[in-house]
Write a structure and sequence with these properties.
5-stranded mixed beta sheet; 6% strand
């Protein structure tokens, strides 16, 4: 070692758990494709069920992980100072240590690591919610049954809770303290290193004593198994094993050359994306409220095609309701004028505008405003929802791209196995959809007998219901026709 230089140097590092295989690039892109296929094939029945079921189970797994991540945040150690050799800013070590700490004799150590699964889970759960909620609002094919509606409600509540947990977890990312690694000045670090376990003899008392003890004794440094000493390898994360933890040092010309600066840029962009998500959520809730609220609106349907065809009748209905309220109020006003004329009294000057301040007119105006608000919500939810999904996916994928390279490549089985499993499921669904064409005569006879028995049970169950229950069950379907 060079005795004329410092005993060791400190440089900033990025400690993180890479994205798990199940949430890597190929499974995520397959998830986006399944959501798109679910929307495009929702009229086909069985085909949409395959795509939507595969996407929903994948998103459900991510939502459950978001609950675990928020509920089990790792406890951090108390920050501890470590004294380091003073290095001037004009040192020649910058070429070997791009994140070198200079002009100070002390750094604060608090081991922690980024959980990059949080970014992938955020992408999956929020995208799923932004698609599942409009599907429940717009699709009559997917929600024409009460059981399906209940399933959508349960699933949307799961996605909504998962989205909140993901956003909360993502908001804590900027609170990760700066991490450092300590190296010999003559041995430049690798750009990326992995933890191979934490030796008990690497931590001897305080962090300051541990660092100086390792670099003062060459045998201790050799036992580390790595070129540099990374205190962050002492941290843990639920659902992870210590050997998955990695430490990364960016080069000067890299996008991640200054990790904290990059996170600040991403966090600054959060406000725009999150605001768009909130607007989309509110508008879709308005849409869903219109679908189920027992309010007799003058909007004939929640379908954009029906609204466009009936736009003139909607406008005339709004206008007619206000005119009827004014005409009734004016008739009453004319009766009062006749009474005043017979008694010789002059009507007040503001009697002409008095009909606009009657309770009847205010009620009519509130109904028109409520219908206009519903119409506004319906139209903008159909416009903003697709734009929000596209903007969020582009933004979150850019975010994940800057997290670093994928853990696995597409040609590895951990990536393409999900595509193969969906393909096999699709083949199975196609074969089962042709079961009546492939069935023998005896199989068809057996199926007919089962269907007759099933129809008899359904008829008995229907006859057991009261007339009010039957009307309640059929009301939502009639409202969408």
């Amino acid at each position: 070692m060079n005795s004329s230089g410092p005993l060791f140097v400190a440089q900033e590092a990025l400690c993180y758990y890479p994205i798990s295989t199940i949430y890597d690039s190929c499974p995520r892109y397959l998830f986006y494709a399944l959501l798109l296929a679910s929307c495009l094939t929702r009229w086909t029945g069985w085909l949409a069920d395959v795509f939507l079921g595969a996407a929903a189970t994948y998103a459900g797994t991510a939502a459950i992980q978001s609950f675990i991540l928020v509920a089990n945040r790792p406890t951090r150690q108390t920050p501890s100072p470590v004294t380091i050799p003073y290095i001037s800013d004009n040192t020649t070590l910058w070429e070997s240590f791009p994140q070198l700490i200079t002009q100070t004799g002390e750094v604060m150590i608090q081991p922690a690591a980024l959980e990059l699964d949080g970014d992938a889970v955020l992408a999956i759960v929020v995208t799923g919610y932004l698609v599942f909620l409009p599907l429940q609002c717009w699709s009559r094919v997917l929600t024409h049954e009460r059981a399906r509606n209940l399933l959508f409600y349960v699933w949307n509540m799961l996605m909504f809770a998962g989205s909140i947990c993901c956003l909360v977890f993502a908001g804590k990312k900027d609170s990760i303290p700066t991490q450092y690694m300590f190296c010999y000045p003559d041995v430049p670090p690798l750009q990326q290193t992995s933890s191979d376990g934490w030796g008990n003899d690497w931590r001897t008392g305080t962090w300051n004593a541990s660092v100086w003890n390792i670099f003062s004794n060459i045998s201790h440094w050799g036992a580390i198994g790595d070129i540099c000493y990374n205190p962050c390898f002492n941290s843990t994360q639920i659902l992870r094993v210590p050997s998955q933890l990695q430490s990364w040092v960016a080069s000067n010309d890299s996008e991640l050359a200054h990790p904290n600066r990059l996170w600040n840029r991403i966090i600054y962009s959060n406000r725009y994306i999150y605001s768009l998500i909130v607007i989309c959520l509110v508008l879709n809730i308005v849409h869903l409220t219109f679908k189920w609220l027992p309010y007799k609106s003058r909007i004939p349907s929640a379908q954009i095609v029906v609204i466009w065809k009936e736009k003139k009748s909607i406008y005339h209905a709004f206008r007619q309701e206000l005119q009827d309220a004014l005409s009734i109020s004016r008739d009453k006003q004319d009766e009062k004028k006749g009474v005043s004329a017979s008694t010789g009294k002059k009507p007040p000057r503001w009697s002409r505008i008095r009909p606009f301040f009657t309770i009847r007119f205010f009620r009519a105006l509130l109904r028109v405003l409520a219908d206009a608000f519903i119409l506004f919500g319906l139209l903008f939810s159909m416009i903003i929802s697709p734009l929000t999904i596209i903007a969020f996916v582009a933004w979150i994928e850019w975010w994940i791209y800057n997290d670093g390279p994928s853990q696995e490549h597409p040609q590895q089985v951990g990536q393409w196995s999900y595509l193969v499993s969906i393909a096999l499921l699709l083949v199975s669904a196609v074969i089962l959809s042709l079961k009546y064409k492939l069935a023998t005569k005896s199989e068809l006879d057996t199926e007919i007998e089962k269907t007759k028995t099933h129809l008899e049970k359904l008829q008995q169950r229907r006859d057991a219901r009261s007339p009010s229950e039957i009307v309640a069950l059929t009301a939502p379907a009639r409202a969408e026709d």
